[in-house]
Design brief:
The protein is α/β, with parallel strands linked by helices and about 475 residues long. About 45% of the residues lie in helices and about 10% in strands. The chain contains 24 helices and 12 strands. The protein has a 7-stranded parallel beta sheet with strand order 3-2-1-4-5-6-7, with helices on both faces. Helix 5 crosses helix 6. The chain starts with a helix and ends in a 6-residue tail after the last helix.
């Protein structure tokens, strides 16, 4: 946590601003009482939620970013300042309504050239030292104007083909969201195949106040859907990638009339990104009645069967999920900690299993992944030797640790696992068996030779379905029209 002396930086406290903002203090200290104003802010003003500068308003910050409010407390104004200085500003979070560091870099190419596209602290200092006096704007007039600004790198009217990934306006963090961001990045790299401009948009009617997700590090600009459709007025083809949680709301939200008019203007296709849900076939048919060219991609082989193809009544394609921004390289045994990371899934067995492990292995560090930034989770995944999932079993917590060179533990189920995965030493037939065997299995595998040997047996089986190259190839096949079950 930033200490009191460090809180009063040039970005968080300006005595002239403070005295002008609060007439009661100006009356008490006068215009020359700058040191007294600073001491008042440090001793009283912070706790009262008074803002000390143009750039940071603690009440605005806590209201704008609920994850911060949950982490430090909804009225912990000192904690809010510390978070912004240590984390938030580096992530491009706005400290106040009056200044938007992401906008400022986008609007000023010379600033981006001088400091980089994501050096938000230096961009803020540039505005303080030079931008204000030069008459530069510190924010867009509205969120939509900022989206337009980012889009102006290319004339929207010149775009002929569009691929739109739709995401919720209310940011939340999940494996599904990470997978969508990964598919977005890969799609952008495949322009030679599909010939389209790839954009990410908020789901219709859900445009957020910000134009970026900030709970994990990413470079993606998210546009208001309505802005893109209005601006790209000469588009001849549009492909919508819609997450499975929201596909049933697409027609009710926009209306059949909207799609009828859009399909008179251009070719429309909707693809439902099914990342682990048993979709209602009748809802798929309702969508197909409005947009005949509807397809589904499934993240898991268990959902990509002829039975599912017939039940959903739409072409089906296996598109394995990939959650990482890189290829998730393995780490050697000697760089790992004796750490067990645990999925956050609720289970009646979780408490007793973790108690059993902790009692038998007090030296083992156990970390449940709960309300954790993705960057921190990735750091733990790289460092950990072990991972235990209480979720579907063949999930990111199980797969990811093997990719990083460690070992995962889970309980078998015949829906998500294949027969050849049933024989893994650390895939148990039940939680009862897991509880009885997991401690001995951790001890027996806790050496460089044993861990690397076991990992090398499991990895080839996982690699048949999972991995960045599998996702790349499957996505390229999708854009070429070569579907698994057409």
């Amino acid at each position: 946590m930033t200490n009191t002396a460090e809180i009063a930086t040039i970005l968080t406290f300006d005595p002239t601003y403070y005295l002008q903002e609060y007439v009661d203090l100006l009356d008490s200290y006068g215009e020359s009482g700058q040191e007294a104003a600073k001491q008042h802010w440090l001793n009283c003003g912070i706790d009262e939620g008074r803002r000390g500068s143009l750039f940071f308003d603690p009440k605005y910050y806590l209201n704008q970013y609920q994850d911060v409010a949950q982490a430090v407390g909804p009225a912990n104004y000192g904690g809010a300042i510390s978070h912004w200085l240590e984390i938030g500003l580096n992530e491009g979070r706005r400290g106040s309504e009056e200044f938007d560091p992401v906008y400022y870099i986008l609007a000023n190419q010379d600033v981006a050239n001088a400091y980089g596209n994501e050096n938000y602290e230096e961009a803020t200092k540039h505005f303080l030292r030079f931008g204000q006096s030069e008459g530069r704007l510190g924010r867009g007039e509205a969120a939509i104007s900022r989206q337009h600004l980012a889009l102006l790198a290319e004339d929207p009217a010149s775009i002929k083909k569009l691929i739109l990934f739709l995401v919720p306006g209310q940011e939340f963090f999940s494996g599904g969201i990470l997978s969508i961001f990964s598919l977005y990045r890969l799609s952008r790299s495949m322009e030679a195949i599909h010939g389209a401009r790839v954009l990410m948009c908020y789901f219709p009617g859900e445009a957020g106040a910000d134009f970026k997700y900030r709970k994990f590090r990413n470079e993606v600009v998210i546009y208001p859907y309505e802005t893109i459709l209005d601006a790209c007025c000469n588009t001849s083809e549009i492909l919508f990638h819609v997450p499975c949680y929201a596909f049933s709301q697409l027609i009710p939200r926009l209306g059949k009339h909207f799609f009828d008019e859009l399909q008179q203007r251009c070719a429309v296709r909707v693809n439902v990104l099914n990342q682990g849900t048993m979709l209602d076939g009748s809802l798929v048919q309702c969508l197909k009645e409005v947009v005949a060219n509807t397809t589904l991609t499934t993240a898991h082989p268990s959902y990509c069967t002829q039975e599912q193809r017939l039940g959903w009544g739409a072409p089906l394609h296996l598109l394995p999920a990939w959650f990482y921004p890189d290829d998730a390289p393995a780490r050697p045994f000697e760089t790992k900690r004796d750490l067990l990371i645990v999925s956050p899934d609720e289970s009646p067995w979780r408490e007793t299993v973790l108690e059993t492990i902790a009692a038998a292995m007090p030296q083992l560090e156990i970390q449940v992944i709960q309300d954790m930034p993705f960057d921190k989770y990735i750091s733990l995944e790289k460092e950990a030797k072990w991972s235990l999932t209480f979720g579907e079993g063949m999930d990111a917590y199980f797969i990811g640790i093997f990719l990083r060179g460690g070992i995962g533990f889970s309980v078998y189920n015949d829906f998500f696992f294949t027969d050849d995965q049933q024989g893994f030493q650390t895939v148990y037939p039940s939680y009862d068996v897991l509880q009885k065997r997991i401690v001995d299995d951790i001890k027996s595998l806790n050496s460089k030779e044993k861990m690397e040997s076991y990992n090398s047996k499991v990895r080839p089986v996982l690699d048949r379905t999972w991995g960045p190259e599998k996702t790349r190839k499957a996505l390229a096949s999708f854009y070429r029209g070569d579907l698994t079950l057409p």
